[in-house]
Amino acid sequence: MPRPTPDPKRAAETKSLRREAGRWLKSARETAGLTQAEVAERVGLRYYTFVSQVESGVGRVPIESQAAWAEALGLDPGEFARALLRLYEPELYRLLFGDEAPAARAQGA
């Protein structure tokens, strides 16, 4: 079965949400007083450049390492995952939680 043609509007929205997630993560890192290299070390990454990619919206925090990222940044893992779900997968977030905003949103996510 052929894949549907990507929707340019949806692609632009996804890109915008990833940048928003990156800004939120950068703010959380700065609030924690950490450098990108320190976050990478705490999370077990080989290169800090992945943290830079995530913060710029190019990459995303992998699901399997979200708890480690939350711990490294001093954030509650559940709220951290919920905030990222809202930004990375807004339709899934809406299906699970409706229009309810996570606590992290109120804190600037």
UniProtKB/TrEMBL annotation:
The segment(s) forming the HTH cro/C1-type domain are 25-80
Q: Name one Pfam family in it.
A: HTH_31
The organism is Phenylobacterium terrae
Give the matching SMART domains: HTH_XRE
Spans traversing the lipid bilayer: none
Protein name listed in UniProt:
Helix-turn-helix domain-containing protein
- Tell me the superkingdom of the source: Bacteria
